[in-house]
Amino acid sequence: MSGRVFAVASGKGGVGKTTTAVNVAAVMAEADRSVVLVDADLGMANVDHVVACDESATATLHDVLADDAALTDATAAAPAGFDVIVGGTTITDFGRADPSALPDVAATLRDRYDCVIVDTGGGLSHDTTVPLGLADETVLVSTRQTAALANTAKTRALVERVGGHVAGAVVTRVTDDAGGADAGHGDAAAATLQTDILGLIPEDSRVADSERAGTPLVSLAPESPAAQAYRELAYTLLDEPLPVSFRDGDASGDAASGLMAASAPSGAPTDDGSGAGAATGDDQTRDASILWRLTGGLLGSNGKR
Ligand SMILES: Nc1ncnc2c1ncn2[C@@H]1O[C@H](COP(=O)(O)OP(=O)(O)O)[C@@H](O)[C@H]1O
Ligand SMILES: [Mg+2]
Q1: Residue identifier of the C-alpha nearest atom 10 of ligand 1
Q2: Which of these, 71, 79, 175, 180, is most buried using a 10 Å CB contact count?
Q3: CB distance 61 to 88 below 8 Å
Q4: Crossing angle of helices 17-30/225-238, nearest 10°?
Q5: Percent helix, strand and coil across the chain, each rounded to 5?
Q6: Whose alpha carbon is nearest atom 17 of ligand 1?
Q7: The organism sits in which domain of life (predicted)?
Q8: Separation of 211 CA from ligand 2 center, angstroms?
Q9: CB under 6 Å to ligand 1: residues?
Q10: Residue to mutate (ligand 1; options 145, 207, 217, 220; most atoms within 8 A of CB)
């Protein structure tokens, strides 16, 4: 099997990348693909805040990237029929994980799944750049805010610089405050980002409900406006027409009811793993290495030298 790898990326955090990654993964699973979502926002892993996974993972992606665990140990099942490579959440995890091991992780997953969705962190640091180079397609995510678009334009340039390919952009949290639905929202974004707009995701209060429930929006509220937009986006990425049962807002088809039947998880993990505790020598070395990475080598030290 040689699955397709999609990176979900933006210049800024908080614009809807994880929400997009989770819902695209859920729709692709609904479309009978085997799907894995990789929580590769190494600094702020939070897929499990958006979708509650089962308890089957005994390790995290960070352990895998530190060569301390096998990929299967970091694999959990999400309620909508896809797997998740869960991320570690502590600062120590961030220091241990080596982003340059990500291409090997992606190659292994490509052999095991039809679709590999890689959720990334914002910004231009090494750990956010690696996924852009290894993915077949990068999906840019931005809100309509000028600053978010400007930052995401940088991400677009970066994708090209690392030899990746931009599939297009998704504009999230769109409201029709500027004179009616679709009132040029896509046009302005397309002009700034210089790429095709793959979808406009409306601002939708059900997104917050889905986070509380730990269930992807497309499963929890398949007929909500954002769920419909995410479904269209995922089929666009699969390069397939939307199934008839989902056209014209009719989400009452079998696929939707099947997903609705997926069991709700028993509750999202609550340990935020903030890593509080006594600092050891090891921690200090790791902190120095984190600083080194975050500042591009200006501060801290690269433990490898
Ligand atoms: N279409 C939407 N409508 C309403 N709220 C949204 C929508 N998309 C995302 N959000 C909210 O925006 C916040 C950031 O989303 P998230 O997907 O975590 O962004 P990122 O991964 O880019 O940091 C979350 O609180 C999420 O609930
Ligand atoms: Mg995120």
Answers
A1: 16
A2: 79
A3: yes
A4: 70
A5: 45, 15, 40
A6: 16
A7: Archaea
A8: 13
A9: 10, 13-19, 172-173, 201, 203-204, 207-208, 211, 226
A10: 207
**Nearby residues for ligand 2 (ion, Cβ within 5 Å):** 17-18, 41
Dihedral of the alpha carbons of 142, 144, 147, 152, in degrees to the nearest 10 = 30
DSSP 221: -
Residue reference for tokens 């892993």: 45
- Classify residue 218 by burial, with Cβ atoms within 10 Å: 0-12, 13-18, 19+: buried
In Å, the largest CA–CA distance within the chain is 60
